[in-house]
Amino acid sequence: MLKRGLRLFGVFALIVEFACVPRSVMRSPLPFGVEMPKAWGVVGGEQGPVTDRWWEQFGDERLNEIVERAVKDGFEVRVAWARLHQLEAVARQVESSWWPQASAQVDVGRRRSVRVLPPPVGVREFENDSFSISLPVSYELDVWDRIGSQSRAARADVMAARADIEAVAMTLTANVVEAWFAVVYQRALRRSLERQLDLGERLLELIGQRFEKGLASLSEWLTQRSQNEALRAQLPLTHAEEFRAQARLAILLGKMPEEAIVPPDRDELPGVLPLPHLGIPLDLLFKRPDLRAARLRVEAADHRVALAIADRLPRLTLSGSLGFSSPELANLFQSFVYGIVASIVGPLWDGGRREAVIMQNEAVLWERIEQLAQAMVTAVQEVESALAQEKRIQEQLQILHARAEVARLNLENAKERYAAGLLDGYLPVLMAQNALEQAEQALLTAKRQWISNRIQLYRSLGGSWTKDLSVPSPRKATESR
Length: 481
Prior knowledge:
Layout: H1 2-18, H2 61-73, H3 75-95, E1 101-102, E2 105-117, E3 122-141, H4 146-212, H5 218-252, H6 284-287, H7 289-310, E4 315-326, E5 336-345, H8 353-419, H9 427-461
Antiparallel strand pairs: 1-3, 2-3, 3-4, 4-5
């Protein structure tokens, strides 16, 4: 009988060898109807060397340290790692179907039966004991690649989750650098206001001296005093905004907002840096983890369509059992039993359920393809917008630098002419002071906009540094008492 079972297994193996997969999965990296442009439409300025860890271009070791801590301890990254571990466990569950399923079984029973026999015997009772130990084993032959499709879909989900972690890390890094320079901007703004206030106090002193000589009016002194108080009123707002930015930075680091993270001496915005190396738009498919995740989800959905199609076909299963059985416990291991069974189970009628499952998975695949196409178009648009904005802001910075310098010279000239009594009134000095204040704040705002836009450009271009991310240790739940 064992030889006959082995011959049957050989027949099934031949079926597996010559069986065909009911669906081939798409391998093209691009959805049909979507083409990446061959070059960037907006490119201006000198491009720097290829840089991956872009935040290091700002030349601040403390900022580099903060980014490393955020990527390691940030809540969003840790949540993404937890999702990855869940999907890895699901993939392991699916892949377990590749292996035979074995179990140990012990049966102990007693059976009592009553028989009515012809007279003179009459009614007789019989008791039978049974003892058995067996090792049942079953194995599904993956003729139609059902298990393979399910396994590959699960593994694609795992790789997409890993890409999600990289995307979260890139976004988190951009948010950390953004919050860092939000703190620096408020300090730079406060320094500018303090310089203007110091100048205003000197002007107020000058007006006071002229007033004592009868060369200035009380109205001029009061006007300058009002101007100084207006500047002084803006200082507390910069402190409040700095605290908010520090708190936001602490949360991104996974900490309570209870300490100043940006050192006090960081109070100057960096100058304009060369453009990063742009490459070509097609590089985004490999450097942007969100695009890789979207592509992997297309692949997973395609495998699930193949799984749904294979689920309509018969399943071929081999099962067997090895063990011992005896009506007496003492003689249990003297009676060896085994069995081999080959079965084919296929659906005949399910009311269209399996066909509906195929339609559902095909619709999911359609959705994933459209999401990938949208993500690709959005990625290119983000880079193009950042490049266009970069060019505009750099032109604006040049103009604002010149404007601030002219306003500074104009105020110095007005101040000297007023002190020498060559002006009819104080209004030209006040107008020059207001012009300088507006020019300096506009220049600071433009620098801040350039930094934000450059951060967006770096994030949009992606990178490969996230491939080296290490798995954080999970936090332990608080023990209940």
